[in-house]
Amino acid sequence: MNTKIAAFLRDSRPATPCLVMDLDIVADNFCALRAALPDTRIFYAVKANPAPAILKLLVAAGSSFDCASIPEIDMVLAAGATPDRISFGNTIKKESDVAAAFERGVRLYAFDSEAELDKVARAAPGSRVFCRILTSGEGAEWPLSRKFGCEPEMAKELLLAARFKGVEPYGVSFHVGSQQRDLEQYDRALAEVADIFHDLAGKGLELKMVNLGGGFATKYMVDIPTAEQYGQAIRDSLLKHFGNRMPETIIEPGRGMVGNAGVIQSEVVLISKKSANDNRSWVYLDIGKFGGLAETMDEAIKYPLVTEHDAEGAESEPVIIAGPTCDSADILYDKADYRLPTALRIGDKVEIRAAGAYTTTYASNGFNGFAPLTEYYI
């Protein structure tokens, strides 16, 4: 357990469930990524955790920001960032929102279809645009679907067309999937990006930027690559595919920036069995899918769980872990082999570790009357 967070929980004894974030870890993560990719601009993915304390810290550190909406843009501007440090990276935007971002000074926009490109051209004339391509998401614990991106051949056509629509076709983006531990996926994506660059150069269009997206992992139950390993793999791939004609590069870390900085403290509400022959207990926590743990959907993200009874050699048993709401979907872990101490009792605290990303932003505003997840930044 992080000693700073442990001391806060011990001294403050906050009501549960709550998220406690160590801002020093966020700062360390930013520095590690900057050192691993010194020639690459970092655009923090605000959706991972938009807390003002985090945004202000990253503004001061020199980060730029990947925003998905006007409220996110406004939060970043309120934290002190200038518009030139913002990318409107959502490929699904209302034209009125594009216009609002343009009015605020934002000049960098993502798109992945002709209709979206036309929106940007009308509402943000003269801006730089980059086209997102599809990737398989293979190897990612939280893969991204075909909802975002287009086939590389379509991207070529759209970028060529952009020249005549009053915007600057600036580059190509991809995302290898969130919590991506397979470093080869960056090379596979960059091979496709390089083909787009080289093909369009032959047609008179010189692209300038590659947006490598996110994918940088947080350690949950298994080991992950270090920031330096991510950086080395990306640098090697860029050199392999682009040689001396190196493009400008940006990355959009979210989970990898804030995930390991947060711990959720929860409380056991109920421990029960469904029959006399049930070989697993049900452990119900005061937080579930709708309270901030949406990424347990399909048991994709497996958070480490820690209790006060976890001494070496302590007896444990297999369990099903669920949230407190009146929704049958609110089961966190059933198929995964989670075990908790047999000494665990109703009222005991359970720490959900590495919970700094995609928790507060996924928390419901009041399903079943449960309050949104309380946050502390220290």
UniProtKB/TrEMBL annotation:
Residue numbers bearing the N6-(pyridoxal phosphate)lysine modification: 47
Domain of life: Bacteria
PANTHER family: ARGININE/DIAMINOPIMELATE/ORNITHINE DECARBOXYLASE, ORNITHINE DECARBOXYLASE 1-RELATED
Keyword Secreted attributed: no
Lyase found in the keyword field: yes
Active site: residue positions: 326
Protein name from the UniProt record: ornithine decarboxylase
Cofactor: pyridoxal 5'-phosphate
Keywords per UniProt: Lyase, Pyridoxal phosphate
Domain Orn/DAP/Arg decarboxylase 2 N-terminal as annotated: residue spans: 27-258
InterPro entries tied to this protein: Ala_racemase/Decarboxylase_C (IPR009006), De-COase2_N (IPR022644), De-COase2_pyr-phos_BS (IPR022653), Orn/DAP/Arg_de-COase (IPR000183), Orn_de-COase (IPR002433), PLP-binding_barrel (IPR029066)
Catalytic activities: L-ornithine + H(+) = putrescine + CO2
Pathway where this protein functions: Amine and polyamine biosynthesis; putrescine biosynthesis via L-ornithine pathway; putrescine from L-ornithine: step 1/1
